[in-house]
Amino acid sequence: MSTTPATHRILGIDFFDGSAKEAIDIMRAKGGLLVVPAAPALKDLDRSPDYRDALLNADLAITDSAFMVLIWNRLQPIPIKRLSGLEYLRDLLLEPDVRQPGNTLWVMASPVSTKRNLDWLAGQGIVIPEDNIYMAPMYGNAPIEDPVLVERLNRLRPRHVIVTIGGGTQERLGLYLKRNLAYRPAIHCIGAAIAFLSGDQVHIPVWADKFYLGWLFRSLAEPKRYIPRYWDARKLLAIMLRNRSRLPELRSDLRS
Could you tell me one molecular function GO term of this UniProt entry (predicted)? Predict the structure, then answer.
């Protein structure tokens, strides 16, 4: 008999509270959309309707944001555990059905990152057929439509779709796929997690991820890119203090 996964409602989103293996088992059994919201995107819940819609309609949201977890555990008597996207991906790539050629389609961000990611995956014994690698276009801020990707997925029908593009965009793409595919794969929106393993971004050791220090490694490696991003994420604190478990109201100037 299946059981309902343990969750905590934070900012109107039901965040999964369990292990990576448990999350993977749920996704394998039920399919659907898994999201890994980070603080720099979460702070925009009140101003990004499409991103908000994606999180609200995800089947599983994991607690990748160390900042969110730290704030929540100060506000509430019952703490929530952090499950990072990096930890989730490490475990996901150990699964035989994910490693099986043709059973997973990868959505990647650029030719350079694709090559690094594929080289690293090959070093782990994971060989991906060419048709199972999809180079994502620049989707922009408009509602996402990608009939080319939908056609390929419906034709190949891989059991898993792993999306490695940027946060705030990948969730919207994931929801578009969930709503438009003719079948129900497990759609894992893991963003930059593979880049930390492949060398496309700075390597984050297991111990650094465990102690919530991934943001520091990224900031030290590319300060001009990441320090402003993480500094801007401080706005999440005020949003959580105001709303706690409630979904923040959408700004009046964004309502249709």
Answer: hexosyltransferase activity
